Amino acid sequence: MSLSPRIVAVFGATGTQGSSVVQALLADGTFVPRAITRNSSSEKALKLKTLGAEVAEADLWDVASLKQALSGVEAVFGITDYYDPKNFAQGHNSEMLLGKNLVDAAKAMDVKYFIWSSLPHCTRVSNGKYPNVYHFDNKANVDDYLRDSGVPHSILHTGWFSENVWNYNILDSVPDSDCLELSVPKYDSQSPQYFTWVERDLGQCALALLKHYEDPESDILSRTFYAVSAKLNYTQFASILQQALGKPVSFVSSPTTGMQEMDDMASINLSGSYEFQSEFGLYPHTAIPDPRLIDLGVKFHTMEEFSQEVKSRFV
Hints:
Blueprint: E1 7-11, H1 16-28, E2 32-37, H2 43-51, E3 54-57, H3 63-69, E4 75-78, H4 85-88, H5 94-108, E5 113-118, H6 122-125, H7 134-149, E6 153-158, E7 160-161, H8 164-167, E8 171-173, E9 180-185, E10 192-196, H9 198-212, E11 223-227, E12 230-233, H10 234-245, E13 249-254, H11 260-269, H12 273-280, H13 291-295, H14 303-314
Helix pairs in contact: 1-9, 3-5, 5-7, 10-14
């Protein structure tokens, strides 16, 4: 008699975070990932199906579709995207509403375990100095809703995505020079940053929690964990990149984020997510990497290892 598959619904499965989780689940084999997407016929969704994932359609705005997609699911990896055009058009609080919809659907379908990908609440942490970093605060508000829901859960906080180096051209050539600039807006050169190499580390963090959440001794339920690969300032990061690339790399704090929406946020009260991170730090009172995740078997990658990935793309 065969056992029923242990299915984990992964939201954002075709994006940076979700794809890392799907890949980790597929490589391990304990769970069957069910990639949740609005378009199951997309090229990325079909590729995941070819790799062995289930694919199901659902829309976070439609609770009925969420319940259908969560049928037979043991666990959920939940994430929302503030900058998705459909969500962004619905206003600053849309991401919070979507997260609440997902929690409600998970509770209705008796999901056994819920991992929520989140960030700090900038307004609270800064005592109101940075009240407009909506893509942080929305997620953090869902933290509270999830805690109150009764759904067994863990919250997984992430850092600054290392992949931003190429996804947003953070590292770029200096014209008429052999030098490179690491350009991050509104950030003090000596302030620490919390780096998450999403592709290599986020998935294994989620997998470790999934494999141990039923073990009371692991003390996983109702806890917040930190999927952060390394803590260092951008000057140190530039030095690591310089050593790997074999050419000068300097850090520059630019006056703009390169994203109009984030610049607009900053202009409202001279605040924004990078200024918040520079002044307060994402997780200043937390050991990085998270020793609890290391005890669960997570092998975090260093930024020296990440620099070799950068080298393969820039040299």
